[in-house]
Amino acid sequence: MSATDVEMMGLTSAEVAERAADGRSNAFTQQSSRSVSSIIRANVLTLFNGIIAACFLVLLLLGRWQDALFGISAIANTVIGSVQEFRAKAALDKLALLHAPRARVRRDGVVTEVAVGGVVLDDRLVLRAGDQVPADARVATSARLQLDESMLTGESDAVDKAPGDDVLSGSVVIAGEGEAIVVRAGADSFANRLASEAKKFSLVASELRTSIDKVLRVVAWIVGPIALLVFNAQMFVFGGWEQAIESGDWRQAAVNTIAALVAMIPLGLVLMTSIAFAVGAVKLARQQVLVQELAAVEGLARVDLICLDKTGTLTEGSIVFDAEHPLGAAADDAAGGCAGWRSVLAWYGGEPDANATARCLAEAYDDVPSAAPVARIPFSSARKWSAVAFATGAASAAGAEVAGSWVLGGPEMVFPDNRLADDARGLAASGLRTLVLARSAEPLDEVSEALPAGLEPVALVTFRERIRPDAAETLAYFAEQGVAVRIISGDNPATVAAIARSVGLDAADGFDARQLPEEPAELAAVLAQHLVFGRVTPDQKKAIVIALKQAGHTVAMTGDGVNDALAIKEADIGIAMESGSAATKAVARIVLLDGRFSHLPRVVAEGRQVIANIERVSMLFLTKTVWATGLALLFGVFVLAFPFLPRQLSVVDGLTIGIPAFFLALMPNARRYVPGFLRRSLSFAIPAGIVVALAVFFYSWAATQAGIGEDELRTGSTLLLTIIGLWVLIVLSRPIDGWKILIIGSMMVGLILVYSVPLATEFLVFVDPSIVTAVLVLAVSVVSIGAIEVIRAVHRRYVRRTALFDPSTTP
């Protein structure tokens, strides 16, 4: 038996067992994107959770559960953060490119079906129409074998495979049959390598989250030393360490220290940001937009460049008949004997194995020839034409003559002499797919599959991709908002450029990605000069996104095929269509459930609302962090009793920050995003926080000098802090209108109730203030309010100088 005969037999059972035993099989276990334990550790075992937990535990051990209300925010932050990451993990864990449960192989000369994981290296795959290729292989035999590789490469046309050609795992056989030898399997196969790279876990870049983390890191560095400073001061307030320990006053010193520390940590800001993201995601879900990671709501509002795949984004992924353009003898059906050419097109449209392009002809032509063809050559993507021949005297149902050989294909392939170049070039430049129908009186040679002699062009037939009706309007919106656009597609550059022009982009020509440089800086330079790129591979799409990010852009990427998955994964914001592949949707941050591109402006608007409102809210929380840190330092350095209980600060926090911030974070706000969120917030929070800290410190010092008792001093301090805090809220909420009036009014009513309802005053240890306390609180409040008004005026001028947006929308 010859070597060829042995190869045709496929592997033996022993050879299969040997390869399976040493790991050369297609068995592949997808690694989880991130373990459950690592997610829990990242969200639970944090420094701030440790600080909060320690403070919470100390208060419980001291029997002061009333002062431990701050623990609720810490628990909520942990739960929300964990849920976000679990959702992202669940989406990635579902990612798989190979879906066929069984594969067909030839072993010991017999064709048998095995599990996809049971395929081994050097196995002989038997491929038939409808099969998904389970592993990378090289074609051994081909009987008009055609594969659809669009899911992997972006090329929309079917690809003919001849012996010696490679086939990729994940591609689908759409016509013909053949056999192929496995050359890469398991983790080395194209589909599994693509899936493994796409499954790498990452959270969307969020300026809000990053800025808040910076604040938390700074507080983390100073909280320890400040805790020791404050606790030491409180111990000396109670007569020194020895006396405080003997008398038991160390307990109150510990409570005072915890009050100072907890106020420094902006836990509410983290919680409020998560809530704003979540509410935005819910609102978008009602618009058929699925937000798979909450911070993506903010992310798209920051995008300044969006990359679009043509198919499935600008177009619907299907083509339709456009028009017929008669040539030569076909200009007059009565001349030249070609009266039946429309019937021939009808035959092509109704052919059972017609490709997607030919099927479009059935909508335009229905006069199918009554006689069956005597010869035919199927379409091949390699030669890009098909042919059919009818016997002498054959006619359509309407009596039109269709005898002779007919060829339908690409003009440059049917007429290599380029006699139709000028006609075809003009049509192709407008984004139309062009085929020529030609006729010959010579017979058709099915064996050689060669073009018949004496071909004459009869008509050019054009097809167009179905443009999404909302594409032009959406791109116009992005242009108005200063968001740049790049079209990156696997299709022909000229076709892509023409479609881009049809939706309003100023794209003169498409750039052939086969000429793209690999060096990132050079690639970025090319990307800055061109808008449209064709023949782009999946790896190039990813490289393009990386180069744009390195050039300083915040990049969004939209697409629907697996060939887009790596780029979507790499982009700051990945957007997938619901009609896209499961892998693409798994790695995307946002999925358009009804595939409507026009939803993106709504997503941008929602993101802007979140950013603008959180910026306003952050000034409230960061002001608190600054004054809390200032108070801790002042009372620690000057060894004064800290003038608050934790529960009193919790109430102030709720009335002046927490409750109103919740509503302010959800209000309409269309201000355009401008970088520098943290800088702008701190430019108000730091001076305002210093004013508040000095005001409370001065009042406390003056009240101590006046001999005011401990409970009344705390009552006055809380009242002073509440009044100033409410004014900060009023300043940051301007203009005060609509719901803001109700919100601020409700907080003022709450203030009155807290100081007047016996149950509340007893719980908060409030007492009726004396005349001295009332005068002091009033005087310090007036001075502080005046100082805050000056700070806000200066802050608005600073923002106008450093930001490029309308002053009327300043937060």
UniProtKB/TrEMBL annotation:
GO CC annotations on file: plasma membrane
Domain of life: Bacteria
An MF annotation (GO) of this entry: ATP hydrolysis activity
InterPro entries: ATPase_P-typ_cyto_dom_N, ATPase_P-typ_P_site, ATPase_P-typ_TM_dom_sf, ATPase_P-typ_transduc_dom_A_sf, ATPase_P-type_domA, HAD-like_sf, HAD_sf, P_typ_ATPase
Domain P-type ATPase A: 98-197
Transmembrane segments: 42-62, 218-238, 258-282, 626-645, 651-670, 682-701, 713-732, 739-758, 770-791
Taxonomy of the source species: Bacteria, Bacillati, Actinomycetota, Actinomycetes, Micrococcales
Stated name of the protein: Cation-transporting ATPase E
Secretion signal span: none
Subcellular location: Cell membrane
Keywords: Membrane, Translocase, Transmembrane, Transmembrane helix
Gene3D superfamilies noted in UniProt: Calcium-transporting ATPase, cytoplasmic domain N, Calcium-transporting ATPase, cytoplasmic transduction domain A, Calcium-transporting ATPase, transmembrane domain, HAD superfamily/HAD-like
Membrane topology: Multi-pass membrane protein
Source species of the chain: Agromyces cerinus subsp. cerinus
